[in-house]
Amino acid sequence: MPARSSRLSGFYRLSVEERRKALLEVTDLSEEAVNALASADALTEEAADHMIENVVGRFVLPVGLATNFIVDGEEYLIPFVLEESSVVAAASNMARRCRDTGGFVSSNDPPIMIAQVQVLDVEDLDAAESAVMGAQEELMRMCNDRPSTMIRLGGGLKRMTCHRIPTDLGTMFVVHLHVDVRDAMGANAVNTMAELVAPRIESLTGGRVLLRILSNLATERMARIEARFSPESMSDDGDASQGAEVISGIIEAYHFAASDPYRAATHNKGVMNAISAVAIACGQDWRAIEAGCHAWAAVRTGRYASMTEWEIDDDGYLVGRLETPMAVGTVGGASRVHPTARACLELLGITSADRLAAVMAASGLAQNLGALRALSTSGIQAGHMRLHARNMAVSAGAVGPEIEEVAARLATWEGPRTQTTAEEILTMLRQGA
Prior knowledge:
With 433 residues, this protein is α+β, with helices and mostly antiparallel strands. The chain has helices at residues 16-26, 31-38, 45-51, 87-97, 125-134, 136-144, 149-152, 187-205, 240-259, 261-281, 286-299, 334-337, 339-348, 353-376, 380-396, 401-411, 419-430, and strands at residues 63-71, 74-81, 104-106, 112-120, 156-167, 170-180, 208-214, 222-229, 308-312, 318-325. It folds into 3 domains: 11-105 and 225-377, 3-hydroxy-3-methylglutaryl-coenzyme A Reductase, Chain A, domain 2 (Alpha-Beta Complex); 112-214, Hydroxymethylglutaryl-CoA reductase, class I/II, NAD/NADP-binding domain (Alpha-Beta Plaits); 382-430, Helicase, Ruva Protein, domain 3. The chain has 17 helices and 10 strands. Strand 1 and strand 2 (74-81) form a beta hairpin. The longest helix is centred in the last third of the chain and has 24 residues, at 353-376. The mean pLDDT is 94.
């Protein structure tokens, strides 16, 4: 097999079947994984029935590959699962533009997740905190002296902290368990520990424990990614001066999102277009990831703002950064149950949660830049509608070769490009016009 590369020129021009054959040639992906990607029935009805309750069917979404990504010196073809046109293309385009500067560089925290134990009716908060912290070693032994692969690999409860939360019902006493979950997402592990120590915390504090649950605001499990883009790379023809103008527009667009929550919501949705798409592809709890990312976007500055940061460095290069909670896992959960999720992880060549977090953060930063560049130049609709035209053609009733023909005519249509327009074009096409 040739050296692994994510730079697959002309990949988008291939048929779906040709793309799968190409994957076998340029990656070490197994035929079993390729078959899982190819089959809409990779998840059997029986397996689905064991995943959630009251199953009546299965829902299929496209799996697309974002190309051109280099993360920490390694090449990655990144699977995206979503229904929105232009996301995969935009992320791939931006990843290509920073290959000459080394791609994306990550700096992630260890995999620490937080469980919260809510204690009510505590009469003496100072005494409660002193008692809990004084018994920290005992409580850690309770959690860590159990048969567990996670603990055997160096994970487990590492420390505890106490917090006082003012509420309309009075001050609540909350104990945080800081747990190293290794390559797991960690929800089950930290919830189990919280429930295990709850009775002892009650006796130590004289209070009443109510909630014992993890927090999805994983501020001790941050993923950080950075990339640099030259003025030449940000131009379509390598013109540095034109690229500098593009960069200037991107910076102006970014500061809008950094300052206004109405703009930030859509700006951050663009980041999550990629992060959530990769999370779904790899069998992650994408709702937990989204909750943590959006919460961090609000609490890190005291108001909801951009998840990303963009600036121009002393060389005139555009520098982008993303820092966000990233609670992901490569052991347990749907990542091991769903055949397509297993295939996507195999495609990435990833076995650790750290690497998955880095790749997901890189995809989010790339997608954010794609949206910023489009918005500050030609506008978001040009590229989006070009790719969405195929969906409109299918919705109009086009089949086979008609789909590309209707889409092509839509792309050059003068005037509004609506679903009615697509239907009119299809009618003309079938009438020979």
